[in-house]
User: Which sequence fits this backbone?
């Protein structure tokens, strides 16, 4: 149970660290940590809610095994975070089973996620024409002090399909990106590179991404008809049941424990919403993590109280402690969740609205572009059809901007999202991510407008307009 509680506290600490300085914002680390608790928080509360130490340990072991059964990545994340907290998790878990490809609801074998290696690429090329592939989406993003990239390609199949099918998509993820060059001339013709120390993608006449490692996965409902799919189909066990997936371990919680679990669950959902890049700058990650700091230890202490009455009183105290740790905005959010989601408006009284610090949107709009910025994320998406809907081309940036008075020595920098519709120019080079750089607004209101950072290392223009309110 101590390991289970420590994993929760490590998750909150990890998310707080990932958002502490938006110049090194790590959106994926926040999403990953919050996502762990989507269907594991209520089991954690169930495991903790008994004064019988033996029963608590048995329950916690069941929950840890359930959590680790969500795949190799989840198990590796749990093991890593437990080790940071000072625990060896592996002895508490059964041996990891061999990875088996899955089948979809139709019984068709699904393409696995693969490391970007020469062997795997050699097996991919006979089925898909990468030389004729096109880029649908490109994103390069900070992950703390590192860079990551995601490229989504539309690839022509070399095999016949039974019926009209959506395009085959190839998603490539790169870790520890070291070299970037891309502009709108580099959207067709793809080569995947693999090597012992470096992998990468060449795009068009001059585009490239180089990285220390990477993975790819096919999103193709017809993959089972390919050479690789037929090979996997022959060795993958048949789908034996279409029943619902197994339910998480646990049972109904007492009312106040349930209210605490519901509140923390909604906090995790709020934190996980950074996965939507357009809203990442709206999620108060540091404030939420501060309010719920130490939640694992507090839940364990409350749940181990003797007698249901004392446990319920302890969980009410935990909720009030979370509200006290939050600023007035978070306290009001907690009160709203308790009322609307848990049906418990009686546990805390929201603090009256007060302005301790100016709101980010107070005052007249900025009349000038900030003098400098740090590029956190740059993405471009091509015009495409998605589920029958035409999607226009777009560019999206995450910029870390200095405080509004440009005083870089005191107030924290702020994260802002800039959306550019139908860009005429999108140029990205490695130097764009080299710390603070001069940010220049280019163009005039009557012509193409855009932004330039690090003297052209990032250059985006659009005639359709830019969301300037976020600057």
Assistant:
């Amino acid at each position: 149970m101590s390991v289970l509680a420590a994993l929760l506290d490590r998750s909150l600490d990890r998310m707080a660290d990932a958002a502490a300085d938006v110049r090194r914002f790590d959106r994926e680390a926040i999403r990953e940590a919050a996502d762990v608790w989507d269907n594991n928080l209520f089991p954690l509360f169930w495991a903790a809610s008994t004064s019988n130490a033996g029963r608590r340990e048995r329950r916690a072991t069941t929950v840890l095994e359930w959590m680790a059964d969500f795949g190799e990545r989840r198990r590796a994340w749990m093991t890593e975070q437990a080790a940071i907290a000072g625990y060896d998790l592996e002895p508490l878990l059964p041996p990891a089973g061999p990875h088996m490809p899955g089948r979809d609801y139709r019984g068709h074998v699904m393409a696995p996620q693969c490391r970007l290696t020469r062997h795997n690429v050699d097996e991919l090329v006979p089925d898909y024409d990468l030389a004729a592939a096109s880029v649908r989406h490109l994103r390069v993003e900070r992950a703390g002090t590192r860079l990551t990239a995601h490229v989504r390609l539309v690839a022509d199949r070399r095999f016949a399909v039974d019926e009209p099918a959506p395009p085959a998509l190839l998603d490539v993820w790169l870790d520890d990106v070291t070299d970037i060059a891309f502009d709108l001339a580099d959207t067709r013709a793809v080569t995947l590179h693999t090597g012992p120390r470096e992998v990468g993608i060449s795009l068009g006449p001059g585009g490239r991404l180089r990285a220390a490692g990477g993975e790819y996965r096919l999103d193709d409902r017809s993959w089972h008809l390919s050479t690789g799919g037929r090979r996997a189909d022959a060795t993958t066990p048949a789908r034996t049941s279409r029943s619902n997936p197994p339910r998480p371990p646990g049972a109904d919680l007492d009312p106040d424990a349930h209210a605490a679990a519901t509140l923390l669950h909604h906090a995790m959902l709020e934190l996980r919403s950074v996965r939507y890049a357009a809203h990442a700058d709206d999620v108060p990650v540091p404030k939420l993590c501060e309010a719920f700091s130490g939640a694992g230890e507090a839940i364990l202490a409350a749940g181990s109280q003797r007698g249901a009455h004392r446990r319920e009183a302890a969980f009410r105290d935990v909720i009030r402690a979370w509200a006290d740790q939050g600023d007035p905005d978070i306290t009001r959010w907690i009160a709203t969740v308790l009322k609307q989601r848990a049906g418990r408006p009686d546990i805390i009284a929201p603090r009256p609205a007060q302005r301790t610090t100016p709101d980010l949107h107070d005052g007249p709009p900025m009349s000038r572009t900030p003098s400098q910025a740090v590029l956190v994320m740059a993405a471009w998406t091509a015009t495409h059809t998605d589920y029958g809907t035409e999607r226009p081309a777009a560019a999206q940036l995450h910029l870390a901007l200095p405080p509004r008075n440009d005083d870089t020595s005191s107030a924290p920098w702020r994260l802002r999202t800039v959306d550019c519709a139908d860009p005429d120019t999108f140029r990205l080079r490695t130097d764009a991510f080299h710390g603070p750089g001069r940010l220049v607004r280019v163009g005039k209101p009557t012509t193409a407008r855009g932004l330039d950072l690090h003297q052209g290392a990032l250059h985006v223009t659009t005639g359709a307009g830019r969301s300037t309110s976020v600057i």
